[in-house]
Design goal:
Layout lengths: L2 E7 L4 E7 L4 E5 L6 H13 L3 E6 L11 H8 L3 E3 L1 H10 L1 H5 L3 H7 L4 E2 L5 E4 L2 E7 L8 E5 L4 E5 L2 E2 L3 E2 L9 H12 L7 E4 L5 E2 H7 L4
């Protein structure tokens, strides 16, 4: 059974999730840890609970969701995994930071991201996620769904309160985003917990009922 802990981190208050099961193997989804203090929170939690970090998964590659990827690489020797389309688009997704001369941008561009498997399944310990393709916020955006544990990590696609992510950034598409939500997320069982990229945790049923967009 998957357990999880949410860290609300960085100036944008992005939700980074650490998930683990009875094997004590763990994965992190969208590590946005942006300071030594935030990285220390993650490290302390992993040590305190006797976990072994084996996987680093990204729903998409906007900077606030991958700020902590270098730390994951350096400390845990875990290669971050992401949608192939977003890996290909990374220079465009990071363009604003690149133009500002940000050393963070160059550090991110040097990470050897691994493409998610074409089988659309990822596992850690004895747990498995199905990869759901939900483009619209970015071209390659995915969600991670565990039918057994009735939870889905949606990144910046679906938020609490009937809201959804922006579609006006590079690679965004408004109609595609709504289609992704309706065909890939709202078809999941209503009791499925939604681990959002920002804001609170919710359920598919609640968001299906309160969705604000046509």
């Amino acid at each position: 059974m998957i357990q999880y802990h949410r860290f609300a981190v960085n100036p944008i208050q992005e939700n980074s999730y650490l998930l683990w099961d009875e094997t004590k193997q763990a994965c992190v989804i969208d590590p946005g840890f942006s300071s030594p203090e935030e990285e220390a929170q993650l490290d302390h939690f992993i040590t305190e609970h006797g976990l072994t970090l084996t996987r680093c998964l990204h729903t998409h590659l906007h900077f606030d969701h991958l700020w902590g990827a270098p730390h994951i690489m350096e400390k845990y020797r875990v290669v971050p995994e992401a949608p192939q389309i977003d890996i290909d688009d990374l220079p465009h997704l990071m363009q604003g930071l690149i133009e500002s001369g940000s050393p963070f941008a160059q550090k991110i561009l040097s990470i050897p991201f691994r493409a998610l498997p074409e089988t659309d399944v990822v596992a850690f310990g004895e747990s498995t996620f199905r990869i759901l393709h939900v483009p619209g916020h970015t071209r390659g955006h995915v969600a991670y769904y565990s039918p057994e544990d009735a939870l889905v990590a949606t990144g910046d696609v679906l938020f609490e309160g009937g809201d959804m992510g922006r579609a006006d950034l590079w690679g965004g598409d408004y109609r595609q985003l709504i289609t992704s939500i309706r065909t890939q997320l709202f078809t999941l069982p209503g009791e499925t917990r939604v681990l959002t990229g920002h804001g609170g945790t919710t359920t598919i049923e609640h968001e299906r009922t309160h969705f604000m967009y046509d």
